[in-house]
Amino acid sequence: MKHKEIERLIQKKLDREIGLDEKRKLDKHLAQCPECVLYYQEMMQASKSLRELTEFYPQTDFNARVLAKLGLRRRFAWTKAAYVFAGSWLAAILFFVYSPLPAQFLSRVATSVPALMRLYDKVELVIASLTQVLSPVIKSSFSTLNPFIGLAFSIMFVYFLGKALQKEVKCKA
Amino acid sequence: MKDTRQITQLIQRVLSNDESACQKILNLYKGRIFSYVYRMVKNYHDAEDITFDTFIKCFNSLATFDTSRPFATWLFTIAHNATMDFFRKNKQEYEYLDDRQAVGDDFVQEYEKKKKMERIERALAELPPMDREIVVLFHKEEHSYQEISTITNLPVTTIKTRLHRARKKLHMLVREKSEKR
Q1: Which of A49, A58, A72 sits opposite B117 (nearest CB)?
Q2: Rounded CA separation B39/B20 (Å)
Q3: Cβ contact (<8 Å) for B136 and A50?
Q4: Are the C-beta atoms of residues A30 and A36 closer than 8 Å to each other?
Q5: Domain edge (last residue) among B92, B113, B134
Q6: Where would you find the membrane-spanning parts of this chain (chain A) (predicted)?
Q7: What is the mean pLDDT of residues A39-57?
Q8: A74, A68 in Cβ contact below 8 A?
Q9: Are A62 and B35 inside 8 Å of each other by CB?
Q10: What burial class does residue A138 get, using C-beta atoms within 10 Å of its C-beta: 0-12 exposed, 13-18 middle, 19+ buried?
Q11: Nearest chain B alpha carbon to A48
Q12: Integer Cα distance of A98 and A101 in angstroms
């Protein structure tokens, strides 16, 4: 068989269009022609390398730029984290304020572990001392509004911290 | 089939302004489109601009996309047209001329650790743009002749002839580069 014919069959194989008979012909010839085997191997290797070519990527802010151009605001992970944080905080406050369960549970744990009671006494002493020191500054010791103010500040804190981190990531990229 | 269903669902979500669906489509295809365009224009910033335009056009005309057709082929057609516009604007002959520098050595070396891959990448860069495009679409992107014909608006016979010729040239160039080392 002529080399030209073999070259045609190799091209057909690379085209994924080779028939069974043609494949048999090709294999038969390759078994006895080292020159064609080398050509066949090089062509197959080139095809394999082409398939495995590196995938390149645009810059990291590419998605954000496309979304901005489309008028879609990108919702960053930290924005979602702020919502989850706020929700958890609110749920925890409502649970502790309106449910008798936490107090009952804590007192049961505290009375069953004497070491915890001693620790609680010490902490209470520290808090009482601090309250004494701070009471001239803070006129009302506790208001139901305080947790909500704290909540608002915490959300703002998480939000701006996330934004600052985002900026840092962009700078590094 | 699962992929087609997934893409169709994503398209529906994009059409209702779902930002996360846009992100998913971008993450699925930006690497493929950017690599294809980059290998055509051989300049990172130009490739990024063309890829950007491709996705903007894609999202803006998504409502007209026929979901019974393969999404990737449609997207590559937009990328191909955007690349041709770029060649026209920059007065470059797409078919024969290719006077740009080969892929930047530093850039390739940064990403290509294997010498074999480097050789094929360099050999590919030496092919005329049209042949390079067909080789990338067939071998790297694994599109069929019919799909390449849709993307490039060329007859299947032309694509086949050019691909066969390009393979032979590529083989010759790789062999030359191997012998030089």
Answers
A1: A49
A2: 29
A3: yes
A4: yes
A5: B92
A6: 81-101, 144-162
A7: 90
A8: yes
A9: no
A10: exposed
A11: B139
A12: 9
Q: Are residues B1 and B71 in the same domain?
A: yes
> Which of B34, B51, B140 is opposite residue A50, by nearest beta carbon?
B140
Q: Which domain holds residue B47?
A: 1-92
The enclosing domain of B180 has a CATH number of 1.10.10.10
- For residue A79, give how far its alpha carbon lies from the nearest alpha carbon of chain B (Å): 14
In angstroms, how far is the first alpha carbon of chain A from the final one?
58
* Domain spans in chain A, listed from the N-terminal domain onward: 3-51, 74-172
Give the pLDDT mean for B79-90: 91
CB contact under 8 A, A58 and B175: no
Better pLDDT: A54 or B134: B134
- Lowest-pLDDT choice from A6-15, A68-77, B103-112: B103-112
Most confidently predicted of A75-79, A108-112, B75-79: B75-79
Query: Tokens 């007209």 correspond to what residue?
Result: B64
Task: Please tell me whether residues B98 and B82 are part of one structural domain.
Answer: no
CB contact under 8 Å between A15 and B124, yes or no, is no
Query: How much is the average pLDDT of B61-84?
Result: 92
Q: Which residues of B touch A (CB under 8 A)?
A: 17, 19-20, 22-23, 26-27, 30-32, 34-35, 38-39, 47-48, 51-52, 55-56, 59-60, 111-112, 116-117, 120-121, 124, 135-136, 139-140, 142, 145, 160, 163-164, 167, 170-171, 174-175
Band (pLDDT 50/70/90 cuts) for residue B181 is low
Check whether residue B129 and residue B139 sit in a common domain. yes
Nearest to B26 among A52, A53, A66 (CB): A66
Count of domains forming chain B: 2
pLDDT of amino acid A52? 87
Write the CATH number for B1: 1.10.1740.10
The DSSP string of A134-161 is HTTTSSSS--THHHHHHHHHHHHHHHHH
B14 to chain A, minimum CA–CA distance in Å? 10
